[in-house]
Amino acid sequence: MKKIAFAVAAMTVAAAAPASAANLNLVTNGGFESTTTTSSTGNFQIGNAGTVAGWTSTGGYNLLFNAANATTGNAAGTYAYTNKEKMWAANASSQGGNFLALDGDSTARGAVQQVINGLTIGQQYLLTFEWGAGQLQSRDGATTEQLLVGFGNDSFSTTILNNVSHGFTGWNTVSRTFTATSTSQVLSFLSIGTPNGLPPIATLDNVAMTAVPEPATWAMMLVGFAMVGATARYRRRNTKAAIA
């Protein structure tokens, strides 16, 4: 009887195993650590002086910085000659390392994006990321920043962040649930800032997207673990009784 109960419990847990896939990040290089560039500082304009694995830029002025030298290392690219293509202020996100800096000027902005594959139609997916608002040393003045985030045909806008001249707002964590309508969908981030010419910068890091487990799957897991626990308690009681 004990063997049967344990087998049933094991089968229940195994049947619920797909829930573990909910922890699988579907975003490639969500921390922007894998890059290719000849920039001496490691900071560069995406699509001009370097690439970020898994991501493309639809034009615009989008930069990659390493948090360790974001305020001192000039970013190679279109405006490198100014020697001011670096942040006035910035610190590392919770993940550390590299982050993106997306120009929100309406005359210079363009989305960064990647195709997310392996989706299940009708399945919910949780998107999380960290973002903030800052400014490059080539300009000064108070700015506002916002991110327009798209996933397939769905989209949403973050709250608007107000940034003081030469400042940085710090990092904010955002979570949003989407429902897949195709097996492959484009995930995109577009910086929208004001005023033009300063320029307003949105920072982005630690992007992740995971499947949300179905309620029935969670229920099966709970039942399975409960049965395993009950079997273990039954064994301990029988062992104590035998010793007594």
TrEMBL record:
A Pfam family the protein falls into: PEP-CTERM
Signal peptide: 1-21
Ranges for domain Ice-binding protein C-terminal: 211-236
Highest taxon above the source species: Bacteria
Domain DUF642, chain residue ranges per copy: 26-195
Keywords assigned by UniProt, alphabetized: Signal
Signal in keyword set: yes
UniProt keyword Iron-sulfur, yes or no: no
NCBIfam families: PEP_CTERM, PEPxxWA-CTERM
Name of this chain's protein: PEPxxWA-CTERM sorting domain-containing protein
Species this protein is from: Sphingomonas aurea
Organism phylogeny: Bacteria, Pseudomonadati, Pseudomonadota, Alphaproteobacteria, Sphingomonadales
